[in-house]
Amino acid sequence: MSSLTLLSPVSAAGAVFRGSLAQGRVRTALAVLAIALGVALGFAVQLINQAAVNELVQGVQALSGDADLEVRGPRAGFDEAVYPQVARMAGVTVASPVVEVDAKIANRSEALRIVGIDAFRAGFIQPGLVASTADRLDTLRPDALFLTPAAMRWLGVERGDAVKIQVALNDVTLRVAGELAPNANARIGAMDIAGAQAGFDRLGRLSRIDLRLAPGVDVVAFAERLRGVLPPGLAVLRPEASIAASASLSRSYRVNLNVLALVALFTGGLLVFSTQAHAVVRRRAQFALLRVLGVSRRRLTALIVAEGALVGVVGSLAGLAAGFVLAEIAVHWVGADLGSGFFRGVVPALALDPAALAIFFALGVAAAMLGSLLPALDAANAAPALALKAGDEERAYARLRPVLPGLLTLALGALATALPPVAGLPLFGYAAIALLLIGTLMLMPRFAVLALSLLPRPRLPAARLAIAQLEGSPGQVSVSLAAIVASVSLTVSMVIMVASFRHSLDAWLERILPADMYVRAASGGETAYLPADAQTLIAALPGVRRADFLREQQLLVDPKRPRIVLQARAVDPADPARTLPIIGTPLLIAAEAPPPVWATEAAADVFGFTPGKVIELPIAGKIERFTVAGVWRDYARQQGAVAMERQRYVALTGDRTVTNAALWLAEGADAKAVKQAIRRDLPGGDRLEFFAPGEIRTLSLQAFDRTFAVTYALELAALVIGLIGLSSSFGALALARRREFGVLRHLGMTRRQIGAMLATEGLAVSGIGLAVGMALGFAISMILIHVVNRQSFHWGMDLSLPWQALTGFGAVLLALSTITALASGRQAMSEDAVRAVKEDW
Predict the structure, then answer these.
(1) Which residues lie across from 79 on neighbouring strands?
(2) Pick from 593, 585, 592: which is nearest to 611 by CA?
(3) What is the H or E stretch that residue 295 is in?
(4) Which of 70-79, 80-89, 405-414, 446-455 has the lowest mean pLDDT?
(5) Nearest Cα to 652, choosing from 798, 561, 553?
(6) Taking the model in full, what pTM does it have?
(7) How many helical (H) and strand (E) elements, i.e. helices and strands, does the chain have?
(8) Pick from 773, 59, 70: which is nearest to 484 by CA?
């Protein structure tokens, strides 16, 4: 009996696949590395985001305790007369009044959350905020402050030390009387509510009322009944609603980062596709032999997909371990907010979430398996008789797929851009980008044929032969370019979007900073402000030609959303564009209509504050009606803002305090002298912060660059994976064409001429990929700018093409691709010409 009859299909298949993995160790390792990098980036971003949100949630839970309901209102608080009215309602067991402020710590830019509580009430609902101390009277003393361990570490204080809080332009000194129960990493302070009201200028005001209801009381019904007796501007919420509102501000940023991190994984999947496609073509004869020996199409497909799954498993395991290390490094060096500012001050403890581990492991394996599926189907459906003949590799590459599926995919992507967000997230925008990318990759062979037909025919024989070879195998070109087109297009789209955003931000800063000098009461916290007498003194100083003052307040318009910002500032209703960056033409409001306000893009999108609409705002415990006279661009307040004339705000509220001042100097006045005069003549003036417009602009752009630093890193990772994919493809093709190189050597071509041919191929292929990637990247950037960004953050921006960066990027990519093609062909050219063609003898 011959050895062939003794060889079973199963053992033969195993031998073929083990031999393939042994021969392609480098390419397999690159595919594993690509999957590992994609999984690591996605898992690291998810770990950091989840840890930061968990810390935020724990902080809110510590403040709300075991409350069944909360009564909340404007950030500045509401009349404490509401408290006895609520506390006496039938069904209320405990009502705990709370004063909550973000206190400005002297000589620090970040604020400390301080809650004023009634210890006799809070002990039943928020026991974690009632400290255990040797002197129980400390919980009632107005100057006693209790801190969590995290807050004490941050401030560098111990029991008995003093903490200075800036209130207006003065300092209020509090004594650290003890330690609150440990609560993760939340920086929280607690004190007696009367001391907080008196010390922080909150006399007669409460921030919220926490309620514990009697057993058996229907919480939903009680909440509805309570809403009917509360003044305008107050809302009744479940504590979890407050948590959701707090987390919602950062949700779009976190989701966008997660999607961006998964781009690297998607590109890694395309690299697996490219690697497997070339490997399958190279092994067509082996697979055909397996088919002849009795291996079914289904089994052959499963074996090739399993080969990809093995790559995914190894890559995912390595990626999960690397992702945890990356997350630790990022939290240590960048912070939990990853540069965005959403979680400033939070130092989360990273924890391995089994669900996240399972999801990212599955994603890595799925990406590798999907990358192997098409090559597997091609190999299984190939006719064994043809595949056993020499030259079938070229026939496999030469096939062109139908155009219609690719065109339909592109059309679906275009239609998806017109669909609205889902739960505030641009899910259809993400789908549109994916569909455009997939449709383009499906049409890559056609693009390659068109591009190659338009290329001029070079005179050098080697270069001419290279173009002819590519024209004969457009499928080969599309397989080689899958990963690089994806990474180039996504990188280009992000470069254009970020450049447009930065350019729009710069133009916006120039519009909103027309004064010569800006004065701020404090960079962190809400307890610092400029009182009326300080404003009068500043405006009357020699050298000050004009002084405009600004006050910000936060109103609760929709209990399910974060508070909207009310900005009281100097606005001329006849020409609001002098002060605000108005979009379009502002409306002139009739005298009999409600007075004008101007809404930001976010307020227009989220709350429907469109021009001409009459809206209602809760101000000073009353509902006031206004007419939206225009929409203005604002990149500072994602939750939305409304601007009104400051004199109207003062008339409605009686609040004359401000937080910022814009100063126009008299001709010849020296800014330094004016600054010194304010600090000298104004009590507490040394606590003020002064900025020139250029300084604010520089600081803002630096913050912007920090925010997008992670974006740049993620895109660079995707691009590196794409270049690895191109290198792997060129290497696989060069090895598969060693017989072709041997024949060319027999016909008299020198190594240098074959090198020129490979360089031409590399230049042509990368040029096609760059052109398609650039065009696709531009289209994707339009979706990012006008769909994803607008639906995520409600910010509009103007298109700005960074030609210099794109040109440099293209030149570097072409050079690297050409060098890669040459380097990949050296191994194949090094073989003896006779040995290279012996398989055809």
Answers:
(1) 205
(2) 585
(3) none
(4) 446-455
(5) 553
(6) 0.81
(7) 30, 21
(8) 773
Q: Report d(CA 600, CA 631) in Å as an integer.
A: 5
Strands (E), 204-348: 205-206, 208-213, 235-237
* Helix (H), strand (E) at residue 114: strand 111-117
CB 471 within 8 A of CB 455: no
Distant-in-sequence, close-in-space partners of 423: CB < 8 Å, separation ≥ 6: none
User: For residues 500 and 803, is the Cβ–Cβ distance under 8 A?
Assistant: no
- Count Cβ atoms below 10 Å from residue 554 Cβ, excluding itself: 18
Question: Which residue did the predictor score with more confidence, 50 or 558?
Answer: 558
Looking only at the bridges linking them, the beta strands covering 544-555 and 564-569 are antiparallel
CA distance 250 to 340: 9
Give me the phi and psi of 832, to 5 degrees please. Answer: -65, 135
Q: Say if residue 382 is exposed, middle or buried (CB neighbours under 10 Å; 0-12, 13-18, 19+).
A: buried
Locus of tokens 């691709």: 817
Question: Which of helix, strand or coil describes residue 64?
Answer: helix
C-beta separation of 442 from 460 below 8 A: no
Q: For 413-425, what is each residue's pLDDT tens digit? A: 999 999 998 878 8
B/e letters for 640-663, b = 16+ CB within 10 Å, e = fewer, are bbbbbbbebbeebbebbbbbbbbb
User: Three-class SS of residue 512?
Assistant: helix
646, amino acid identity: R
For residue 136, give the H/E element and its range: none
Rg (CA), the chain: 33
What type of residue is 348?
P
Q: How far apart are CA 561 and CA 603, in angstroms?
A: 11
Angle (nearest 5°) at CA 222 between 221 and 225: 90
- Start-to-end C-alpha separation, the chain: 28
- Higher per-residue pLDDT: 571 or 821: 571
Buried b / exposed e along 795-822 (16+ C-beta atoms within 10 A): bbbeebebeeebeebbeebbeebbebbb
Tell how strand 170-179 and strand 144-147 pair up: parallel
